[in-house]
Protein 1
Amino acid sequence: MNIFVLLKRTFDTEEKIGINNGRIEDDGAEYIINPYDEYAVEEAINLRDEHGGEVTVVTIGEEDAEKQLRTALAMGADKAVLINTEDDLEEGDQFTTVKILEAFFEDKEADIILAGNVAIDEASGQVGPRLAERLDMSCVTTITKIEIDGSTANIERDVEGDVEKVETSLPLLVTCQQGLNEPRYPSLPGIMKAKKKPLEELEIDDLDLDEDDVEPKTKTTEIFLPPEKQAGKVLEGETDEQVKELVSLLKTEAKVL
Ligand SMILES: Cc1cc2nc3c(=O)[nH]c(=O)nc-3n(C[C@H](O)[C@H](O)[C@H](O)COP(=O)(O)OP(=O)(O)OC[C@H]3O[C@@H](n4cnc5c(N)ncnc54)[C@H](O)[C@@H]3O)c2cc1C
């Protein structure tokens, strides 16, 4: 089975994030595999182990994304591809990303493509479904279980806490949701092996694209952090006095009454 994973390198939203001139500051930011893409890598490995074939992990990004690709290889993926846009493109959006991926998949004959449900940094959730549309593939989002029998896929998907069962056929693109599996940590032998696994680097030229073909359709005009939380206020005195003061503060300061 020809299995592909779309993997995005994102900054770790658990860490402190700084913004300068409307851009996330690279300095001090920690970078990780988008957590939903870890479910995709794990599921791809499991499908490969059950049905045979190989797992290729694909990232559009810069040179630094090699680290996250090597981690996916250490988990057990077979090959990685970095589509490096560093020298060619300054800006991009979901259109750019999907256009590049569409060109990449043109000659690939993928049986299944696994993506994350959403990227935790920009969180549009567009890339998977838009790519499936461009490749004329079935698409099932937020999956929590998948079983493949021949060319049939039986899938369970999370619908706001409910479960929906779907049957579809390959070729197929799925987006992965929490609950699908427990992504493994790379083992030491896995890390050693990953160093020798193939990591191909492509540029948009190699995909017969130029800057005009992938020009973004949207522009991020501003990005900012939520306002800092004010320190809390501790009320003192008898309970009935505290209640009076609380009601007064809710009216005059919070203006919610
Ligand atoms: C050349 C280029 C320049 C860019 N410049 C900017 C910029 O200046 N400012 C800015 O804010 N953003 C920039 N972006 C990022 C872009 O706007 C989006 O982050 C990207 O299109 C994905 O959208 P998303 O993060 O909402 O992902 P979602 O649609 O939420 O992601 C869902 C899933 O799609 C897959 N996926 C998403 N992105 C990638 C990827 N890059 N590689 C492989 N798989 C992926 C993953 O499986 C992910 O879990 C740039 C992108 C490109 C390609």
Protein 2
Amino acid sequence: MHPAAAQCRDCGSPLVARPVSGQGTVFTYTVNHHPYNPEIPVPYVIAIVELVEQSGLRVAANIVDCEPDSVTSGMAVSIRPEKGAGGAPLFGPAAS
Ligand SMILES: [Zn+2]
């Protein structure tokens, strides 16, 4: 669940955080060309990344370290240590 919550929104059960590898694939994405925030240069990629740990385990993120036009659905990505604008997770192309 992202952002993190103490309880399941479906059944109310308590939730605990578990570490993940930071490896995943781009589930879907869009390339934003509109400068909503003048501090973030356009174009940039907004994506839903599915983590390798579990089918359906997805997180909203930005894709960095590559040309926006090179991003594809299914592309292998890995987490970057820094956070993006507003604390968004940043993923980039996975090392091959
Ligand atoms: Zn539940």
Protein 3
Amino acid sequence: MKFAVIGGTGLIGSQVVKKLNAAGHEAVPHSLSTGIDVITGRGVEEAVAGADGVVNLTNSPTFDDASPAFFQTSMDNLLAAGHKGGVGHFVILSIVGADQVPNLAYYRAKVLQEDILKAGPIPYSIVRATQFMEFIAAVMSWSTEGDTVRLPTTALQPIAAQDLSDTVAEVAAGTPLNATLNIGGPDVRPLDELGRMTLNARPDGRTVVTDDTAGMFAAVDGDVLITKGDARIAPTHYTDWLA
Ligand SMILES: NC(=O)c1ccc[n+]([C@@H]2O[C@H](COP(=O)([O-])OP(=O)(O)OC[C@H]3O[C@@H](n4cnc5c(N)ncnc54)[C@H](OP(=O)(O)O)[C@@H]3O)[C@@H](O)[C@H]2O)c1
């Protein structure tokens, strides 16, 4: 099968391209750096023309109030081009529990992206994943001041990008689900503990201070970002990933 992987140079996109090609498909990465722009529409029709499936793994450059407009415009452009080009399956990657965090613009933006896809003209699959293990260091950097990293006790269930990419590639190559598949990592831990584990494995002079008001995850209540009963659980543990 032929795939246009939009955002195919990113963390997940680049691995999905490799996995689809290794499975015998023809997957082509497209992104700003390959010359397309999902916001202006430049190159989008050409990118998706002739593809059996489109896998949209782009991300908004910011997580703030500008993110809903990014997902609205990019989905409008990609769905219009995909429909015109006869694409038979459109896949996006969203976030477990995104609809449970309406006070964060980025999570609202991901729900908007899902809603646009569901209302659109192309058979679809939505993969909702928990937070990437690769993302923990970035989260820590956002609330670092000097040698202190302030982190809340928010429960997270980190997943390795490798594991998630296997599932995204598998879903893309399958029959459209016209539904959502949830996937998370094997362990649930508070974010402050994940920060301490990270610095134990990779000491850099910083220490973690628990602060339930710190950073974007402070806005998250209880276990809303944790998978529930019907989810797929990925194999890689954070301790092994860190090692
Ligand atoms: N972070 C998490 O823990 C998490 C959890 C669940 C789901 N997700 C979702 O996973 C998806 C992929 O995330 P990621 O971390 O793999 O993303 P990423 O590494 O930041 O990659 C983003 C990709 O989007 C491309 N891009 C950005 N703006 C574009 C534009 N205007 N036109 C064309 N391409 C554009 C980038 O192109 P260039 O490289 O050429 O600039 C890059 O290929 C996101 O939708 C995110 O919401 C994330």
